[in-house]
Each structure stands twice: as structure tokens, then as C-alpha cells.
Amino acid sequence: MALSSAPFARMNGCGNEILVVDLRELQSRVRPEAARTLAAGAETHFDQIMAIHRPATPGTDAYVRIINADGSEAEACGNGTRCVVQALAAETGRTHFTFETRAGLILAEEHEDGTISVDMGKPRFSWQEIPLAEEFRDTRAIELQIGPIDAPVLHSPSVVSMGNPHAIFWVKQDVNAFALDRFGPVLENHPIFPERANISIAEVTSPSSLTMRTWERGVGLTRACGSAACAAAVSAARTRRTGREVAVTQPGGTLTIRWRDDDHVIMTGPAEWEWSGRLDPETGDYLRDTVADSAEEREIG
Ligand SMILES: N[C@@H](CCC[C@H](N)C(=O)O)C(=O)O
């Protein structure tokens, strides 16, 4: 592989498909075209690239850029952050990390059982911060003209920013009964969301559990979305559907979300290494490593 290549690991967080690319040595950037090439590849298909850069701010471990499959940049990615933590914990033996992202500082911790908690920060509810294109005083449920798509079953989403914009449609039926692949793209690009939005359908299954599915901005249907799980948990607690700690089940697995009294949202769940290689961040050309058969060999880099 050319000298201009960087180590990467193909990982997943609850089935959310992630490429963790370590650009600290190369000091380059993943080009949107290269991201789209990798996303289109059978082997390298991903939902997000988590690009690890040298820290921009003293006291942080890395600046992490989050790139969606369509090449756009996101402010937050819960499942991808757990993957970054696992990769860096394997490399350094450390358990606590501070990252900088477009959404601000993120603190994360790997536990002894291998699960990882990420402090996803404080939710934001004002229409300007989400952002919405027009004023809504109460974002717990907004009236949205969505035309004939599955209306009137789907209406009045709860909207919230977890650093990135989310709309949650609360339903009383099985979330699999809805054609999210059909209305997801329409709602993602609805004019009320000037920066597009992640679209989820969620059902309360008990005072401490939810099930949900998400159409991710810049990606499409995913098996899990960590920030959407946080958005749904916050929305559920805010509308008195549940308490402040819930188990959120998505097609790829279950996350625990706790909305602490200090307003921070803590997401806990797994991360899984699949395989690794080296890639050129300018072109998306890559080479897969030969099979690693020890934990040491799996360390990124
Ligand atoms: N999968 C992510 C969310 C990634 C970003 C999202 N698609 C956006 O554009 O906001 C997660 O686990 O949070």
C-alpha cells in the first residue's frame, strides 16, 4: 500500500457499521469522495467513519471527525464513539478518554466488563438549537405537515438535539409495522429541518424500556443509532412516558441510557472489532490485514 495510508479498523456498535480511521500519523483528512467509495464497497460498507485526528485542544486525547456514508459530516455519533474508545483502550491500556468533536467535548470510559459509557452531553430543546426552520415554543411534540405518508398514524414528532438533530415519532404499535424506508428520506429532508434530521419511530414497552428504529441522516436505515437512542430516552422522560433511565432496544442490540440530574445523558453499550487494514483517505483504496489471531494484533495501528 502507498505511503499515504492510515490504519483503520472495521467495527460495529450494536450493529451500527463503523470504520475507525487513525489519521494521527498521516495528518490527512478523509475526503467525502473517498468516504462514498468506501461506503459503496461490499466489504467496507459503513454507516459512519470515525476519523481520529491529533488533539486540537490541550488536555483532550483526539479530535474526532464523524463522516456519514454520503460524505457529510455529523456533530455526534454515540455508537462510533464507543468504537473509538475500544480501539484506543486496546492501544493504550487506558480506560478514560476525552474527545473533541463538532458537538464539543465528549468524555468516555471503558468498564471492566468491556462495555463503554459515553457522556453525550446535554440535550438541547430550543427550536434554534435543533435547528428547526420556524419557531416552536414546545418541542415535545411539533405539528408537522408530512402529507400522505403513513398519516395520520405518524404525527407530531418530539424533536431534540443531541449535538445532532433528531425527530422521534412515538407510536403504540410494533415499530417494525412502519415503512421507515419509505418516509425516512422524505422526513430527513423535510423543510422544517434546515440541516436535515435523523428520523426515528419509538414505542414505550415499559416504564424503563423502549424499542425503536432509525433512519439516519446521511446514511439511511441503520441497525442502531446511539444519539437517536439518547434522543428517544430524553424525549420519553420529558413527556413522562418513562423514567430517566431506560433500556433502548434497536434491531442491532440494546443500549442503556441514563439522563442524569445534572442534565448529562450517559449512553452505555458494547463495541465490537471485526477486521482491520490500511486505507488511503484521499481515494478510499484499502488493503485488508491478514487475519489477526491475537488481541495485540487487533490494536489499531
Ligand atoms: N450512528 C450515529 C449517528 C451518526 C450521525 C447521524 N447520522 C447524523 O448525521 O446526525 C450514532 O450512533 O449516534
Describe the structure using short key phrases.
35% strand, single chain, 18-stranded mixed beta sheet, 2 domains, binds ligand LBFN2T5F, 5 helices, 17% helix, Diaminopimelate Epimerase, Chain A, domain 1, 301 residues, alpha+beta
Order of helices and strands: EEHEEEHEEEEEHEEEHEEEEEH
Q: Which parts are unreliable, with pLDDT below 50 for 5 consecutive residues or more? A: none
State the domain count. 2
Report the helical percentage: 10-25%
What share of the residues does DSSP label as strand, in percent? Answer: 35-45%
Overall morphology:
globular
The number of distinct helices, counting runs of at least 4 residues, comes to 5
Q: Could you give me the name of the CATH homologous superfamily of the largest domain?
A: Diaminopimelate Epimerase, Chain A, domain 1
- Structural class comes to alpha+beta
Family: Belongs to the diaminopimelate epimerase family.
Site (Could be important to modulate the pK values of the two catalytic cysteine residues): 166, 216
Protein name: Diaminopimelate epimerase
Enzyme class: isomerase
Structure, explained:
With 301 residues, the protein is α+β, with helices and mostly antiparallel strands. It has 2 domains: 6-120 and 271-298, Diaminopimelate Epimerase, Chain A, domain 1, CATH 3.10.310.10; 158-263, Diaminopimelate Epimerase, Chain A, domain 1, CATH 3.10.310.10. Helix content is 17%, strand content 35%. It has 5 helices and 18 strands. The protein has helices at 32-40, 78-92, 180-188, 226-238, 295-298; strands at residues 6-13, 16-22, 48-53, 62-68, 73-74, 96-101, 104-110, 116-119, 158-161, 165-170, 198-206, 209-216, 220-222, 245-250, 253-259, 265-269, 272-279, 286-288. The chain has an 18-stranded mixed sheet that branches. Strand 1 (6-13) and strand 2 (16-22) form a beta hairpin. The longest helix is centred in the first third of the chain and has 15 residues, at 78-92. It is globular and about 55 Å long. The mean pLDDT is 94. The structure holds ligand LBFN2T5F. It is found in: Cytoplasm. Its main location: cytoplasm. Catalyzes the stereoinversion of LL-2,6-diaminopimelate (L,L-DAP) to meso-diaminopimelate (meso-DAP), a precursor of L-lysine and an essential component of the bacterial peptidoglycan. The record marks 166, 216 as: Could be important to modulate the pK values of the two catalytic cysteine residues. Substrate binds at residues 16, 48, 68, 78-79, 164, 198, 216-217, 226-227.
